[in-house]
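Practice problem: histidine kinase
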Amino acid sequence: MLTIDSDSNIVYANPAVEDILGYAPAELIGSSKMKIIPERLEPVHVAALASYVATGERNIDWDGIELPALHKDGHEVPTLISLREHEHNGEQYFTGIIRDVTEQRQRESQLQEQKDRLNEFADILTHDIRNPLSIAYGYTEIAHEQHESPELERVLASLTRIDDLVSDILALSKRGEV
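Answer key — structure tokens:
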């Protein structure tokens, strides 16, 4: 958790900030919030705070905005920040509860990779099953036309059922339910 004043100076940092950003609280208190803002985002932060202080209009979601923060070693940390505004002795302050979402983003990425592999597998499976299935169905249909028999009707029904199952598997994989 960090608290900044209306001039963007950090006035409070709890110990958990060290786990997330690598700074001991004492290293942050008294410094500008820009110490933890990636350089490419500094103009946006300056403008957003100035605009809010001047107009009172929020231009971001204060209940959870995902922004990168700058770690002490220079790498960016994906964070989820919830902000609150408060006054103390007539001064305006902003407190942000910061959560590191690195692991969550990694899990989401891994899940997406698994989903992509599953879709690829389903596509290959349907192709590799449907081609010989179509051939078997075609030959069985020809044989059934030449020699009608209940056995060939059952074979055709079974082949149709297999094709339906393949279609269901493909549909489920596309929806991410397999």
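Discussion: The helical segments are 16-21, 25-28, 42-55, 102-146, 150-175. Students who identified this feature from the tokens alone can consider the problem solved.
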